[in-house]
Amino acid sequence: MRTACAALLLSLALPALAAEPPAYGPELEGFDYPHPVKRFAFDSQGEKLQMAYMDVQPSTPNGHTLVLLHGKNFCGATWEGSIQALTQAGYRVVVPDQVGFCKSSKPQRYQFSFQQLAANTHALLASLKLEKVTLMGHSMGGMLASRYALQYPQQVEQLVLVNPIGLEDWKAKGVPWRSIDAWYQRELKTSSEAIRNYQKSTYYAGQWRPEFDKWVEMQAGMYRGKGREAVAWDSALTYDMIYTQPVVHEFDKLQMPVLLLIGQTDNTAPGKDAAPEALRGQLGNYTVLGQQAAERIPDARLVTFADLGHSPQIQAPEVFHKALLEGLKAR
After folding, report:
1. CB atoms near residue 296 (< 10 Å)
2. What is the model's pTM?
3. Distance from first CA to last CA of the chain, Å, rounded?
4. Beta bridge partners of 302
5. Which residues does 183 contact at the CB level (< 8 Å), separation at least 6?
6. Which residue segments constitute the domains of the chain, with CATH numbers given?
């Protein structure tokens, strides 16, 4: 009887003992990265800023460096599996958090542009004395990597685009403009549930696994903690950057080999929810967009993953990294 009562009391106490969801600071304070985080301090637009980054050395170097650029709803930490696979293959790997994101500064009066973020990244690489690198960009990082390659073509030996957004011009297709103030109010409502539901339907086509929750809470935690307003404001500014600064029309100017790694169940298109209903189904069709990008880029190689979505490097790391390493060696 005593044992049964004790078990009952314990079961009643469990909800109260359940861990509270994490609340991180505006620079993702409290969330651990897989490797030591360094800081690059620099001045930009009259502000003193810092870019957080990881610089991971291989045990047996092959003489090549990859720079990994995160997406909008991602951080440098989400590249942890790729960092491991690449360093084991001999690559030095540099992984920055862009200004406005994750562990980097959150300036509130900053003119965000892909050109500016590329210049910031270029300054970081110059400080590390890196003159020639391979760039790999995922999601929004694909737009940034493309802009960087156009801005600094002599520094990029190869470009890798992993389900990049911006393979279509949403403004030209008829997606309505949304003001920064409207984006800001929307971002203030960010929650774990909203992020998870969005990623389930958009990124993974309903194929969800518990380990993905780590990245959901990483993002949501910045909106729970002190400084959430600064996080939401910079997120709104960068949504406007994505909408107003397409790069797809310049793909024919890319001078280096480009490896496209495309999960085909992806249907990501920022602002899709604001589009007319008849248009929504036409947006984010990566089966078509990947092929179109490969046709526009002079020296492109397209590798597709039929059953994978927006983040193939997270969803099926062994399959993805096998294709990535083969693509890198092919050049």
Report:
1. 17
2. 0.93
3. 72
4. 260
5. 235, 236, 239, 240
6. 31-173+247-329 (3.40.50.1820)
